[in-house]
Amino acid sequence: MASDVAKVLQMLSITESTKDPFEHGFVVVGHSMGAKTALGTIVHLSRHLVAAVKGLVLVAPAAPASLDLPLEMKAQQMVACKSDESIRWTVENVLANTERLSAFDKDLIVQDSLGGNELAKKAWPAYGMVEDICPAVKDSLASMKTGLRASVIFGEFDIVEPKERVEAEVGQFLTENGVQVTLKMAEGVKHLIPLEAPAVIYDEVCRFW
User: Where residue 167 sits, what CATH number does that domain have?
Assistant: First the structure.
């Protein structure tokens, strides 16, 4: 996934109709497992694109290190997106403060979750979260000539990626590798910050300009 993102950015940066914005730099944003992908993307960027990265915004981020869940929890994740009922239960009981979601939001989550490729749904709990990308990310950060900035956002009531784990396994890792980290709490929300509190993400992205 990270390699694909890097390739798309590379093509956009050299295509006549889309290359101009890259002269102003860009911010890499990722949510949950997408935040791990965002860190992996840095590894795959060409030198000229690395220089154009203004910063990272990692939202309720999964850690770049390995996380191997107990078999029972892994099996539960495998079937979380199997049906309308299981998706809605997961959203309401685990992922979100549903008072922050509209009926449209909930329907969209169900539609996207049911529409996902079956192999892709299994990939994250099966091996994606177990993969340790820390060494590769560390090497890439060390090669950057200027310090990178990152905004790390966590949900006040997130039980998937709680504050303590985000601080210890994401914030501390980045800080130890020369990244200037800012931690930001999204108040009153759980894990689905892009839907529960999108303005928080918008504000953090704007900080880089």
Answer: 3.40.50.1820
pLDDT in tens, 22-81: 989 999 999 999 999 999 999 999 988 998 999 999 999 999 999 877 777 767 777 777
Q: For residues 56 and 151, state if they share a domain.
A: yes
Q: CA-to-CA distance for 131 and 159, rounded, in angstroms?
A: 21
Which among 113, 118, 104 is positioned nearest to 85, based on CA atoms?
113
What does DSSP say about strands 149-155 and 180-186: parallel, antiparallel, or unpaired? parallel
80 secondary structure, DSSP code: T
Q: What's the full length of the chain, in residues?
A: 209
Q: What is the mean pLDDT of the chain?
A: 92
Q: 3-state DSSP call for residue 55?
A: strand
The model's pTM is 0.93
